[in-house]
Design goal:
The chain is of the alpha/beta class. The model has no long low-confidence stretch (mean pLDDT 91).
Length: 158
């Protein structure tokens, strides 16, 4: 089975979401189903059908998260402190050479990637372009809108 890298923070978020789904969401939806059943005819009981749909979603999400957890390989980023070469777990400050905009991304596993939060997947084109480079390097990558050029300003492992 292919192991997927994940940071310790990402692994903890997975565990937390599983815990919340199992200990809070699942019991709540079971209670909602029981209450909806008490209202009688299930064929036209919208609350019952909504609760069953929610239950299916919760159970599916639990299965999905448990599979992620079983295939995850936790990478301890803390041991990389002092490393200047960009590898998995690096937080990288860049300047977009085309428009002067400063951006900051952390390279994480695909399970925890969230572009809006500045977390990019190790498999993303930008992360692949950055891997192995150092502070001060210029990096080019092909984006959907054409070639993008970045200067690496700082590399940190937090």
């Amino acid at each position: 089975m292919k192991r997927i890298p994940i940071t310790a923070v990402g692994a903890e978020k997975l565990r937390d979401e599983i815990r919340v789904l199992k200990t809070e969401s699942r019991p709540r939806v079971i209670q909602a189903i029981a209450e909806a059943r008490a209202h009688g005819d299930l064929k036209e009981n919208a609350e019952y059908h909504a609760a069953k749909e929610q239950q299916a979603f919760i159970e599916g999400r639990i299965r999905e998260l448990e599979i992620m957890q079983s295939t995850a390989e936790i990478i301890d980023v803390a041991r990389l402190v002092g490393t200047k070469k960009i590898v998995f777990g690096a937080t990288v400050n860049l300047v977009d050479e085309d428009d002067g905009r400063e951006i900051c991304y952390r390279i994480v596993g695909e399970y925890e990637a969230d572009m809006k939060s500045g977390l990019i997947s190790i498999a993303s084109p930008l992360a692949r372009a950055l891997i192995g480079h150092l502070e001060g390097d210029l990096v080019s990558m092909m984006a959907p809108g054409g070639e993008r050029n970045y200067e690496i300003m700082r590399v940190e492992y937090l």
